[in-house]
Fold this protein.
Amino acid sequence: MTTDPLLLVSDHMAGHVHLVTVPDGAEAGCLTRRHLSEHAGFLALPHGRVACVDDRRGELLVLDPYGPELVESAVPVAVPAEHLAADPSGRWVAVTTGLGKNTDPWSDLLTVVDLATGDAARVRTRRGEPGVTVLGPDEPLVVLRHREPGALAVHRLTELLDAPPGCPPVTPHRTLDLPDDGHGDAQDPLHSAVFAATGEGVHRAIRSGDRLTAQPLIPWGAPARGWYLRFDARRRALWSTLRSGSADPLHWPEWTNQAWRHELDTASTTLTDLGPGLVFRLALARDHAAFARIHPDGDELITLAGDGTVRRTPLPAMDGAPRRGATPWEGVQRRAVAASPGAHWVAVTRGGHGEVHLVDARTGEEPTRLKLDTPLHHGGHALLLAPSDGADGDPVGR
């Protein structure tokens, strides 16, 4: 069994999952006819396992990239998968449903799974695009982050698992009000704290028994907001990318972007300019945070070191990339970025070209460029993992 870092790359359009070693790019496994949910993403579990959702088959997959078989288990779940999260022990998993290829919210199904027993249950909550966190490990709670009206809805996981067949509606055990524009979720397992990104800032709440107690708001510290939130277990910090500019997506090349880092133990916030264009998800390497920036004047990989040093690595253009005068979302190629808190490598995809750039975050050099046998339309999705890297300290799918 290899102890090298491994890279999972999902071509969700082609239905292919690549598993390669890093940095040489040797094939270590593959899956075909598996269309993974790009929105729900990958969820790192303890012992090097990874959870994801096959949106076409309607299955929660538990992958074991370092094991003898890539697919460890498959459990039926409701789709299209919107968000995916586990409790800190990695035993209980929750999957929410969203719009999929529809223009209006239509599904209110939530699936909860006990990976230790294989038991699963589906219940009805609220239509929309709910985020989710699972607090535990004792008497776990499922916390749904709803919009319009905004709320954190608390459910006892054992009650959800005991629900009868037929997808019955369930009522939250407790609720906590939020603004209507929540988008982005994180959990700090050490303090059983949940975080939700809104226009006002990051709302946080601490578990108190079977309820949540609101804590002071964490401000963005800029005339902007984050639409993505993740917990950095290695540095005990929250990260996001703040975006400001016109609400019209046709003006995306003028959007401004800042890396936002909030250290939880010191309550200090740092902002770093990333440049104009489209920046969304980020990845966390051993000593760096990594961002892919797309812009008509040129794309780049940006790595931000703990001391604030910024390094910019130019990336070759993508055929079919977002262009001026059109939106950056529909029918265009994009990039996915991946890193492991146990390695210095950063992987960034080149959508439509079937290529993955492997960059050393310490130097900005690209010693390897992987060429896969599927195109990675829409940028695909990727996860870089290393043995015992602690990535499961962030129990929300990315």
In short: Helices lie at 157-161. The radius of gyration is 20 Å.
